[in-house]
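Tripartite motif-containing 63
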Amino acid sequence: MDYKSSLIPDGNAMENLEKQLICPICLEMFTKPVVILPCQHNLCRKCANDIFQAANPYWTNRGGSVSMSGGRFRCPSCRHEVIMDRHGVYGLQRNLLVENIIDIYKQECSSRPLQKGSHPMCKEHEDEKINIYCLTCEVPTCSLCKVFGAHQACEVAPLQSIFQGQKTELSNCISMLVAGNDRVQTMISQLEDSCRVTKENSHQVKEELSQKFDTLYAILDEKKSELLQRITQEQEEKLGFIEALILQYREQLEKSTKLVETAIQSLDEPGGATFLSSAKQLIKSIVEASKGCQLGKTEQGFENMDYFTLDLEHIAEALRAIDFGTDDDEEEFTEEEADEEEGVTTEGKEEHQ
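Tokens:
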């Protein structure tokens, strides 16, 4: 059994195999293909080096004067990123299996007769292949069109040279675009890191701010309890004094009431001797009781508690003015201090003169 014939079958299988052997950058069949580990995708070594150089402008190729340990390479097929060593792309492994398959494919293609219709034919001259490129009209054409047809006055060039030039230009554009995509991806990663750091910093300052306000709340609660305790103490002292006076007056009232009852009973005594025997002492007790009615009393405004009033407007204004400090305020304050010091120095010099 012929190995080549079994490996490269006829028909669509050849076309499918050719598609697998095309470099995604230059769109040509692989030239010295290298495998990108660990994603296992293949690129031409030159195409891979162009992409690597575009993404790492400060990395020099072999023989350069600048020495670096390596660089980053992002696979254009799957976007997988690989860290290169100091050899760069030339440190990647050559895919010898793909090279052998390409050699077999080329040999098989060269041994096959060219099928009819495999080469584009001119629409104006059906038997002529398109083999030149009109630079003036920017279209492929055939030799008869240049000699006898519509492109007699146009400037033309060999199709293969324009073909290679356009492919080289497209390859360079792809490399440039891939490098640009890498830069965009790098910027996206940086912005995502900025989002994460911003969230972390915001959470931290929120925690710090909450702790500071909790401290203020604790101080206010402590001060509130202290002031309320002082008011309660003053209230108890005043109430104790007033209740003691009430008790004294009630005792005095009770004594006076009993004395009045005794005096009334004495007035009802019909016998003079009996009345006189107790009347003098009774009158003396009433007189002494009348003198003893001068008990203590509260002063005017004793019940007033207005001296416990607080003026917290300035503190409220200070709380409303709480804000985050800025460097501009510190700079203005520093400039004002500098102006004041300069003014004092000038006045001192004038006085000295």
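The longest helix spans residues 159-267.
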